[in-house]
Amino acid sequence: MENASPFYNRVRERKSLADALNSPRSEMLIVYGRRGVGKSALLDQALKDANLPSLYYRATRRTLALQLEALTDAAREAFPDAFLGQSFESLTVFFDFLSHYAAQREDTGNQSPIAVVIDELPYLADVDPGLLTVIQHWWDANKRRPNLKIFLAGSYVAFMERQVLDASAPLYNRRTGALKLEALDYAEAALFFPRYSPQEKMAAYAILGGMPSYLEQFDPAQDIADNLRATVLRRNTYLSEEPDWLLLEDRRRDVTHGSILRAVATGQRKPSDIARAIGKNSAQDIAPQLASLQEQGLLIREVPITEMSQPRSRTSLYYIADNYLDFWYRYVDPARSLIARGLGERVWEQTISPNLGEYISRPSFERASRQFLWRILENSNSEEFTDLSFVNVGTWWGAGDREIDVVATNERGQVTVAGSCKWTESPMDVREYAALQSDLALAGLTLSEAPWWFLFSRLGFSPHLTEIAAAQNPRRLILVDLDQMYRV
Fold first, then answer.
1. What are φ and ψ of residue 326, in 5° steps?
2. Could you tell me where the beta strands, DSSP code E, fall in 327-413?
3. Is 437 helix (H, G, I), strand (E, B) or coil?
4. Which CATH architecture has domain 186-361?
5. Which terminus of the chain is more solvent-facing, meaning fewer CB atoms within 10 Å of its CB: N or C?
6. Does the pLDDT of residue 428 top 50, yes or no?
7. A Pfam family this protein belongs to (predicted)?
8. Which secondary-structure segment (H or E) carries 178?
9. Domain boundaries along the sequence of the chain
10. Annotation: CATH topology of 11-180
């Protein structure tokens, strides 16, 4: 298998870490994001790039005594001139060691900083509940040492946001920066598969999403079907088992959490429908689990774009945030018995292959189309889009079947972009354009003075529709095929 780098398009994140490592002051950065998003590899690479004395410790699920032994070994290896004797007796002693070592280097005229990464911080806090207070007091006493660069990282997003970043947390106002790593978008994910056609790239994104640890499991020299057979539709592989491990990671989760994800993956979107599908009486019965899954970034709650500012909107639908989890719960989880018996090929031929186009269409292709808007706003130097402006991108739906796939609004809530997405077996024609205009008119949304119309199509556009777009001056109808989506 070809090696795939986990740092595709992590330019801004690497710059943030490099700036902290090279700054003239002390730094304490909080780095967090879902398991598999590439935090650990990113931090490790940043330390290598900086070429500074550095300690990298990844906490695990074990006792405090064993953690302290491992931490001592890591310190001995990182700072061989520190002449460490016995193991650290406590985490307080470890942090005191860091300040003494930094002072010792300053006293000898060595001004280069030392970098310390504590990865998977929540595991360490589990065995020493007072850890964050220890760090608080230690940082207050040592934050003026310019040669201390501390990075606290974690995959348990809810813990990092509530216990580390929240205004009530001990480390509030101590951090010098916070970096949340998000999944790669559709175009960044495609960089893992340079040989794939645009359709294959979109299929890979629909299946794997944007988590680097998932993307690197596929061999870019093999097609989608062969990769699925090798890495998903067989027992004891990383991808076949990862969703179960994700749920086990948080001990607060019970069987209801997995049941909710399974229901959402099979099309239940409303809280009441989800509750009914898993045998609960009402949406209130699953409210804590819905909140927990959202906190950890596994579930997203969508509302029509016109209701984004209304936190208590009752017009909400739930989607699995990660494409691979959605794929796994829809196709792999129900077929576990077949896969366990080596019948993954049957799952591919009878279940996945006939339905893959429909699966790609929604929500993945629609999600990618909305990401495309952000990409042209951030990256395009074309004069064509100089007056394209929006602050929110989402979708809209109303009574009956009325729905608009892509809607962008400005700071006044006016619609500046409306779009339609079609993953079909034929080119998009003028009827889709007319239907989009009609749906927008019936929705009663407030339009900006000169809205844009974006049509996204798997197989291009009819000659008539192409002529209409070309004849506009100024051009406001933008036809986007897959080739164009991957050129931005």
1. -60, -50
2. 392-397, 403-409
3. helix
4. Orthogonal Bundle (1.10)
5. N
6. yes
7. ATPase_2
8. strand 177-180
9. 11-180, 186-361, 380-485
10. Rossmann fold (3.40.50)
